[in-house]
Automatic annotation (TrEMBL):
This is Amino acid transporter. The keyword Plastid does not apply. It is found in: Cell membrane. InterPro entries: LeuE-type (IPR001123).
Amino acid sequence: MTHLTILAFALVSFIGIATPGPTVLLALTNGSKFGIRTASYGMAGAVLSDFVLIGAVALGLGALLAASEFWFSVVKWIGVGYLTFLGIMLLRSKGTLDVVHTDVSISTLPSARLVFLKSFFVAITNPKGYLFFSAFLPQFVVPELPQFPQYLALAVTFALIDLAVMFGYAILGSRAVRLLKKQGALWLDRLCGGALLALAGSLAFYRRAST
């Protein structure tokens, strides 16, 4: 695997990651609602999921989901249900400014574990991630060379780009909410909640490619 291969992988990965998906939207909302420090726990959960997804693909789980309608459906509907739950919670939100700009006890903020697990769970219950990596990663892996170091290099590259993009979205959310009044912050939650529901809907209609 050459540096040019890694660079090409990084470029394509950046384009895919920068397009808002569930974990990116969570970084945006966590940044606006709780600040960068709390949002960073969600980013850590998403980064861990990158390694889990790529590791699973390297071990053949992506191929299993591509071949099995049953297991594909199980993972898909768990993901649909969780995205729907998160979307509804945001739609029912009363805005983010109360948390960010008032003197509240630290106990009113979600635990680091909850924020971490929310982003992690969103990612690993999306079968599109497994299928995407199954189709995407082998194009950058040289079959004649040892597989593990190559998948590890791709996983680290992808995770670093994912972290940078999520950090940018979290900063955007944190800065945006400071410029918005209460009603504007409310509509930011509505927008992100609607986007998560739209992603849940697209996942519900997503079909395993026929073999």
